[in-house]
Prior knowledge:
Layout: E1 3-5, H1 7-13, H2 18-25, H3 29-37, H4 44-53, H5 58-61, E2 62-64
Antiparallel strand pairs: 1-2
Helix pairs in contact: 2-3
Amino acid sequence: MPLKNKVKDYRTAAGINQQEFGRLVGVSRQTISSIECGDYHPSVLVALKIAKILNTTVEDVFEFVEDGNE
């Protein structure tokens, strides 16, 4: 599933490291890293928490991009 995200951009702009961000979201630093790299797609609940902590919307942080083959 082609899901792009701007988690790292928003997180670094907020001045929060991965360890602290993971604590705030309720996941590990490794999970944050995997989300930022696009290797892991978060649940709806985690995506909502991420957006809330970053003071933005899920749509601003995550974007579904169709590749035209679906």
